[in-house]
Amino acid sequence: MAQRGTYQRYLNRFGWFCVTPAMVLFSLFMLYPIVSSLYYVTRRWKGMSNTFIGLGNFVRMAHDQVFQGALANNFIFMVIQIPIMIFLALMLAVLLNQGIRRFRGPLRLAIFLPAVTSLVVVSVLFRVLLQQNGMLNNVLLDAHLITTPIGWLNDAFWAKVTIILAMTWRWTGYNMVFFLVGLQSIDTEIYEAAEVDGASKFRQLFSITIPLLMPVILFSLVTSTSGTMQLFDEPNILTWQGGPANATMTAALYIYRQAFFVNADFGYATAMSYVVVLISGIFAIVQMRLLGERKAK
Amino acid sequence: MKKRMFIVLALVATLVVGLSAQKKLTVWCWDPNFNVYAMKQAALVYNKTHPDVNIEVVDMAQDIEAKIISGLQAGGAGLPDIALFQDFRIEQFLQDYPNAFVDLKAAGVDYSKFAAYKVGPMTVGNHVYGIPFDTGSTGLWLRTDYIKEAGLNPDNYAGKKLTWSEVIKLGVQVKAKTGKPLLAYQSDNFDMLRIVVQSTGGQFFNTDGSLNLRSDAFKKSLTLFKELNDKGLLYPVVGWSDWINAINSDQAAGFLNAIWMVGSVKSRPENAGKYMIIPTPKIEGVPGASNASNNGGSSWYVFSSSPNKALAVDFLKSVWATTTPDTLAFYNDILKGAGAMGTYLPSQQGSNYTARDSFFYKNQAIYHDFATWMANVPVLRYTPNYVPMRDAVAHATLNYFQGKLKTVDETIAAAESEYKQVMGQ
């Protein structure tokens, strides 16, 4: 008995020994920044000096239409892009899982590849394609689909479309992989039974595939939402610093610009990230409540 | 045992030798064809007398300021010894990080030998912090082949001090005959508007640092831009690289920018013989307007956090700010090599300053011309808040072009409002 107690104690100590490096790093690089950010939030920062302003940063946000516009852009991207992407990813996953027999591997790779490509490199190519006299406009003009070149990067509306297209291109494959894994865990017997009962492929999709995939879809939805709230690379590089005229400015990009370009105001930037985290959190909870319940039924 | 001792000794010896020989300076800047090139040339000059110093010039493209800010916030960690700053950015850094840079006036640099308009932004009280580098003297770059194609004679324009209405007339004709807009224009960018406003002697800020967008010069400049836009004389692109690309892929018949574009234009052999550069056009009806302006220009700064700051100061001083033959030859070389025109006045006697350049239309003596125009450049007040002002004005201008803002007054009000919100005023 006594021996076992020693072993338990040994295991316990060994466990602590194993997690210590992770805990130290976590405390240093996650916990400490989060705790210290509480101090930043209440201050107006200017280079090396700062002054206490209480909730002043939040008052400033309430008057800052650039920040509000950036948040609104985040919502627009979220509401339009995520459903399109999840729908496409789901369809591609179903196709790859059931419909297509040949070239499955290369196709899967081709669709997943954008998620692991460097966006900086890709943006350069995209910008060449999307210029006023770029390939996309030339193709559309030659096909007589449009009469004047579209300002993919110049026009406030089309720049948003560009961002949505780029995000969809980049993340559809990534989400598709989750769906593929999810599909493989669905028992083929269920489909066979449905087949016997005379259910069409369409019916099978909506009555079997999607309901059984709901946990994976929920996961995709929550990660995509928080990803969209942090959207940074595309508007920074592809549409060039949130252009044209802040039309694709996002909260994350504005925070970065406030901290590193405009004012070096780390207090205001931190306060804005608090708001972004709060909104992301609320979205995650709402999504889990809504979709989680439906799954239970 | 003996063998082991020997190995240890050898290791220690190599380490000691390695450390003592490794007198290393790191320089951060951008643009391999221009700043990086110039600094590497400077390093070669310094190595003639100091062969033991290894000067590493790092090309930092976009995020150089963000990286520097992170380093400054961390008390100097990870910073280089020397960095290049745009003249319009440095005031913000000098204000926000008062002890971050080495006072070079105290280190004995003679600033009376530099162009005065370059020294202003780097001066705080009695301290001067930088080594002024290049000028941004501007001109109107025109493609003579398109002017000829439009049935006009480029010689009628060469060297002429035009007004903007004459330029518009030229542009309309070129556009009608060749289909090329006259000017490649970065629609997200403030540079061209700044060139025009500065040529009038106008300012974006009052002497007390408050915003000043309601001047007659600014209103007239905006009106001019709208006209250029509405007549289809601007070829709009987004971002710097696309702008260079538009110029080097024949999308427009010219552009309005500074001398440092020489390198980018020369990087494409097909441009040879095609470009001529005429003085910056003048806006009519603004008293004080001239045919000269400036855009860009940067200067070198030494960080106080640098462990080698004495060496860094010595390097900058001896290569960039002395009248030794080596320094004068260096300035003369980088002018030819990259079109980098320094603002060290004694260097302007170099042979390349008056030389004709066979790359340009009828072997124009472009450096002589740019240097002449530089003498008339009105001084622009940057203040630490230049960047938010620039962004707000650029955004409002684009919305004016696209019809979202209807009048000049609305545009100015929108720019003022964005500036105030971003600044938290």
**C-alpha termini separation of chain B:** 74 Å
* CATH topology (level 3) name of the largest domain in chain B: D-Maltodextrin-Binding Protein, domain 2
- Radius of gyration of chain A, Cα only, in angstroms? 24 Å
Strand content of chain B: 5-15%
Quaternary structure of the protein = heterodimer
Radius of gyration over C-alpha positions of chain B, nearest whole angstrom:
24 Å
By CATH, the architecture of chain A is named Orthogonal Bundle
CATH class of the largest domain in chain B: Alpha Beta
**Uncertain regions spanning at least 5 consecutive residues of chain A:** none
Class by alpha and beta content of chain A: mainly alpha
User: How many individual helices of chain B?
Assistant: 17
Could you report the average pLDDT of chain B, rounded to the nearest whole number? 91
H/E element order of chain A? HEEHHHHHHHHHHH
Predict the CATH topology of chain A. MetI-like fold
Would you write up a description of this structure?
The complex is a heterodimer of chains A (297) and B (425). Chain A is mainly alpha-helical. Chain A has one domain (58-296): MetI-like (MetI-like fold), CATH 1.10.3720.10. In chain A, 78% of the residues lie in helices and 3% in strands. A two-stranded antiparallel ribbon of chain A has the order 1-2. In chain A, a hairpin with a 2-residue loop joins strand 1 (43-46) and strand 2. The longest helix of chain A is centred in the first third of the chain and has 40 residues, at 2-41. The mean pLDDT of chain A is 89. Chain B has helices at 2-21, 35-49, 64-73, 87-96, 116-119, 144-149, 164-178, 191-199, 216-230, 240-247, 262-266, 309-320, 325-338, 351-354, 366-374, 386-401, 408-423, and strands at residues 23-29, 53-59, 82-86, 123-124, 127-128, 130-132, 138-143, 183-186, 234-237, 254-258, 275-279, 298-302. Chain B has 17 helices and 12 strands. Chain B is 44% helix and 13% strand. Chains A and B meet through helix 3, helix 5 and helix 11 of A and helix 3, helix 4, strand 9, helix 10 and helix 16 of B.
